[in-house]
Structure prediction request, 414 residues.
Amino acid sequence: MTDLFDRIIKDKGPLGKWAKQAEGYYVFPKLEGPISNRMGFNGKKVITWSINDYLGLANHPEVLKADAAAAAEHGMAYPMGARMMSGHTEYHEQLERECAEFVCKEAAYLVNFGYQGMVSAIDALVTKHDVIVYDVDSHACIIDGVRLHHGKRFTFMHNDIESLEKNLERATKVAEANGGGILVISEGVFGMRGEQGKLKEIVALKQKYNFRLLVDDAHGFGTLGKTGAGAGQEQGVQDDIDVYFATFAKSMAGIGAFFAADKEIIQYLQYNMRSQMFAKSLPMAMVKGALKRLDMIRTMPELKEKLWENVTALQSGLREKGFNIGNTNTCVTPIFLEGDIPEAMAMVHDLRENYGVFCSIVVYPVIPKGMILLRLIPTATHTLEDVSESIEAFSAIRSKLEKGIYKRIAAAMM
Ligand SMILES: Cc1ncc(COP(=O)(O)O)c(C=O)c1O
Prediction:
């Protein structure tokens, strides 16, 4: 037998083992000052490409005013208790009605956090007789929701409709044998590489197979579709998404999330989602703040237009300079480079310290060994100067990477 803590201290986990080298800089960095296109980091100003404040609402004066007024009126505690017991208000209901209307669904249900909400919704939607079929590249909240499932689950290859169909055939056999149903789960936008989920093709399979579709549209909400209703609206299949999910943590620059679907399904979630039944309700300041943000998204299309001006300038500028930005068809902009982890760290250090550009860095095991992914999130607060200055910086560091300069720096530091 071993002591639990002895094991934990010895084996810090796949990320924790890098803490000494990475903490405070590559992980848990402290971005300072108001949320914007340029923020403080390590004593200097950097262009920030790592904040999901797509529409620039995080620090918008009207949003700050609404948040402060709601907090002054209600504090951060009200309402106390779970929604079902004592934490329900007319504003929670109003926000649900408005979210549902915004994404063209009958009804919506608020949850406190996207991650927990998704885990709990998956848990609530299926029984052990049902089968889940989900994209292998799904966000952790989907993977962890599926982990709670007592029945069969199949993954399909990322955005691969042939693979989905093969797995639907298998799932259909299992569901028929068990007397269960099938839940297919995709993301509206895959947040690492920026590809939209192939919702149109997935929905087309409903002609042949009997399943319900749950879509996590965390990055699509507010950024895609004519009115910002997300990836389903962009692809013309919003009506065919059976359960729609979006978080307030990105375009809405807040906290909380919601599910939207037919009234009866939402009512079922209200009475069966354990993350909400056994947790305190979303505080009023968040709810009123979200109402303000949603109103601004609805009435200020110029925010999305500015966002897309920056997305287009950034993505076309990078492509012109020969960068591999994969198959993104959303705002999320990946830059794929080749190199090992020490090189990647030396490169990002140079990028931040000497070029004043801050973006997220993703390496193995999230992406294949030998690849480096710089992940950029353009927002409505960026300027075209931010875009051109950053593209210059990326070109300079790519050239150093290719010359092996970062390999030498990394080796010298070992
Ligand atoms: C695709 C996706 N789903 C769910 C979540 C979780 O949302 P929240 O931050 O509200 O917990 C995130 C990240 O925020 C996300 O990127």
About this structure: The mean pLDDT is 96. Residues 31-54+301-413 form a domain with the Aspartate Aminotransferase, domain 1 fold (CATH 3.90.1150.10).
